[in-house]
Structure formats: structure tokens, C-alpha cells
Amino acid sequence: MGRPGIVLSSSFVSSTDEKFQKYIEYLDRDEATRNKAFEKYNIVAYTEFNDYMENPAKSSGLFSATEDYLGEQKADEMKTLFAEAQKKQSTLWQDVFSFDNAFLVEEGLYDSRTGELDERKIQQAVRVAMEDKFQKENLAGQGIWTASIHYNTDNIHVHVASVEMENTKPRVYREIKTFNKGTQRYEGTGKFDWQNKGRVKQKTLDTMKSKFANTLIDRNTSLAKIHEISRTHLLKNTVNLSTDDLYLCQLYKDLLKTLPHNRKDWQYNKKEMSPFRKQVNQITDYYLKEKNPQAFEELVQALDSEEEKRLRIYGGGSSKEETEIPQDDMVQHARNVTETNHYKDNKLQELYERAGNKILRELKMMSQDDRKELFRLADLPKSKRKMDAGAWHPPNPFKKQLFNEKMILRNMKKFERAIVGERDQMMHEHQYEQLQQQIYYSQANNRGR
Fold first, then answer.
1. Is 112 exposed, middle or buried (0-12, 13-18, 19+ CB in 10 A)?
2. What Å distances lie between residue 187 and 53, 93, 94, 196, 228, CA to CA?
3. Does residue 280 carry a pLDDT above 80?
4. Which InterPro entries match (predicted)?
5. How far apart are CA 264 and CA 65, in angstroms?
6. How many angstroms separate the first and last alpha carbons of the chain?
7. In the prediction, which pLDDT does 309 show?
8. With bands split at pLDDT 50, 70 and 90, how would you rate the model's confidence at 400?
9. Which end of the chain, N or C, is more open, meaning fewer C-beta atoms within 10 Å of its C-beta?
10. What is the pLDDT of residues 26-61, one digit of tens each?
11. Looking at residues 330-351, what average pLDDT do you find?
12. What is the mean pLDDT of residues 96-114?
């Protein structure tokens, strides 16, 4: 698996660490000075794929949650806030969003010839990701951050630094570690101090990366297409029992004969359904691959495309790749395994679950007469079966299907009897009213005489 399009790495230091102070010192310096002093205040020594952080060739100006560019006054205000946070023993977090530049070119976010980058879009993606981080790590309302985009030859990346105005993290007495360039590892210094527990939850990092990617790259059209094909064209319009198809009747009959006695167990994912799930899937296969193969093939192609895109963005998340990533307690990396691993298979499994439950609901709702008719149709000799040779059309989901001509006639006769009965009753009532009127007028005439 190739390099992911986006990588997120994160680290932190306590308020007593010299890198915290160095970051404050360089907050209000000009861009060139910050670039030269980058290694002095940088915390994330490397990203997920061993991209070791060095002084950037150039960087954008600082930006924040509310400002696209921090001028001298705004930068000085931010410096003051970071200094106050340090005095109150805040943790300093640094998050690095790193890109494969080829990926940025593919998505139309970067022109490698001119060096032009869609900074506004990247800034907005950072804001969405940081808002999510603050919510999940209980920093909302008191967390602040500032960031800048660094332009390196191979991997453009965004450095985000954040603090909380009142420290909420527990403190522990432990050894101070620094990054050794020679061994390319974090190593103990032999010095101990009280330090904050600043590690971010893995789920937070994973969600941050997802939010960042989804803001940067609009996948709504692709996902809407998958939803439309799966839920409407296949589930709603295709998975419907039609008694014109006697082979389908046979499949339903065979399943009905083997299902558990208790109808409450007729749910696809219940353990009691495990012995019968293969039969349910056989019916779903028939619906998808025989009744509406064009829509099913279109869904498979859409899922292949979406899975390929997700692998490009997030990487494969395989165990082999994870063993190649440096592991220590200082630098964390977003994983996003659930975003990529078996995406297509998971979506198809979800479709089969929904279709299976719909099939089981159809069987649950059958009356005794419906079942008898289903069995009768399924048992017809092949010579008497009249299969529809024309193109199959999904039945109207809003119309109640009647099982056969006899049932249609039976219902028509009931309807006719109901109409006749109501008509006769109305005639009797009308005649009764006429008779009452005649009696009334007759009595009136007699009194008048």
C-alpha cells in the first residue's frame, strides 16, 4: 500500500519544557525567523511515515480559529494568552497534518508548477478538526490554538499548537525525554519533573483526521450515489416478493419451512438465525443479481471507487504498516482503520442485512391464507409455471399486493356484497323515512279536519 494522502501526528509537552517557552518566544516573530528557529520549538519530531520535521523552506503566516492571518497585534495577543496558559501549568499540544503533495495535486488543491496552494480550504479543514478535538478532549470554551502551513519539497504540512487556559490534566512525576537525531528516537535525559498527562485519545485523533479529510475533499456526491442505489433502487424497489416469479415463491417456501417457530427470532443478526442466514442470503442474491443486476453492478463499481479513494486518503491500516511506524509514548498517529479496511465488504454486508430483515418481515406479515397460496404456487409442476419472460419491473411499493386471481375475485365479491348491503340499508332507511312522513301528513290532515 502506498503512502496515504493525509497523515496526522500529535505530541505534547508540559509547561516546564523549554520547547513551550521557545514556542511563545517565536509566536510574534516574522515568518523567516520562525522558519529558521523551527526545530527549537517543534514538538512532533516525525510524522507517521518517518518524515522528520526540519526547518521549512517557507511557511504561511499564522492563522487561528477566527483569523485567516494573524497580524502583529493579533500575534502578540496570542503570545500573551499562551504565556498565561503556561503559568497555569497548561499542556502544549502540537498536531501536524502532513500531505503527500501528489495527492494535493490530484485533488486540485496544489499546483506543483506555480507552487500555489488552496490555503483557505486547508485552514477551514484545520478549524473543523480542532473544533472536534476540543469537544472530545473537554477543551471547548477554554482551549485556543494557532497554526501555520509549512511548504517543504516533498510534503507540505500544517503545524497546529494548542493550549488550555486552565489546566485540567492530571500531573505525574516522570523522566523528561528529548528526541535524539542520531538514534532517531525519544530518549530519557535522566532528569525528572512533574509533567502533565497530555496524551490524546486515539479515537479523537482518528475523528480529527476524518473531519479534516471530509472538509478538504467533498465526498457527498459519491456517498449520496451509494445510498441512493443501495436504499432506493435495490432495497426499496427490488427486494419485494412478487408471486409472478414462482422460483422466488419456492425460495420463500423453503425458507419458511425451516425458520424457528418463534417469530421474534426472525431477525437477520440474531444468533438463532445463524443456521438459516445462508438461505436468506440466497434470496437476496437472487433479488440483486437476477432481478436488478444493472443496479447491483453500478453499486459495486461505486463502492470500488469509494474504497480506492479512502485508501488513497487514509492508507490501508494493515498490521504490517503499523509495525513500521515508530512507537513510543511521545508521538501519536491517527489510524482510521475503520475508514478503509474492507469498506466495500462492510457496505455489501450492510445491504444484505437490510435485505434479509425485509425478507423476514414479509414472511412475518403473511396471513395463514397467504402462506397457503405461497405453498400452492411453489408446488406447481414446472409445466404449469408461467414465468414472466419480459423485463422485470419493480412493483409499486405503495400498493398492497394480492397473491392471486382467486384472492382478487374473493376481495371483489366481498366489496360488492358490502356495497349492495350498504345500498339496501340506505334504501330501507329512505323508505322508512317516506313512510314516517306519510303518517305525519295523514295525521296532520285528520287534525285539520
1. exposed
2. 17, 19, 19, 18, 53
3. yes
4. MobL, MobP2
5. 52
6. 112
7. 92
8. very low
9. C
10. 887 777 667 676 666 676 654 444 444 444 556 778
11. 84
12. 93
How many CB atoms neighbour CB 262 within 10 A?
8
Q: How much is the pLDDT for 182?
A: 62
Three-state secondary structure call for residue 179: strand
Determine the Cα–Cα distance for residues 339 and 447; give it in Å rounded to an integer. 95
C-alpha–C-alpha distance, residues 48 and 338, integer Å: 18
Buried b (16+ CB within 10 A) or exposed e, 92-110: bbbbbbbbbbebbeebebb
Report if residue 449 sits inside a domain. Answer: no
pLDDT of residue 204: 95
The 3-state DSSP class for residue 69 equals coil
Kindly tell me the number of DSSP H helices and DSSP E strands found in the chain: 16, 11
Of 48-52, 157-161, 273-277, the poorest mean pLDDT is in 48-52
How would residue 416 be classed by pLDDT, with cut points 50, 70 and 90?
Answer: low
Q: Do 271 and 346 lie in a common domain?
A: yes
Angular region, 69: left φ>0, alpha ψ -120 to 50, beta rest: beta
109 has pLDDT over 80: yes
Q: How many domains is the chain partitioned into structurally?
A: 3
Q: Extract the runs of DSSP E, i.e. beta strands, from 119-270.
A: 143-151, 157-164, 171-180, 185-196
pLDDT given for residue 48 in this prediction: 45
- Phi, psi dihedral angles at 14 (to 5 degrees): -85, 170
The closest of 303, 208, 284 to 6, measured between CA atoms, is 208
Q: Do 33 and 102 reside in the same domain of the chain?
A: yes
- 254/395 same-domain check: yes
Which of 217, 239, 259 is a domain's end point?
Answer: 217
Nearest to 62 by CA among 33, 32, 28, 87: 28
CA–CA separation, 206 and 212 (whole Å): 10
- Angstrom CA distances, 38 to 20, 30, 56, 73, 151, stand at 12, 12, 8, 22, 13
Residue with cell 467533498: 218
The answer to whether 268 and 275 are in contact (CB under 8 A) is no
Domain extent, residue 377, equals: 221-316+340-403
Cβ–Cβ under 8 Å, residues 310 and 339? yes
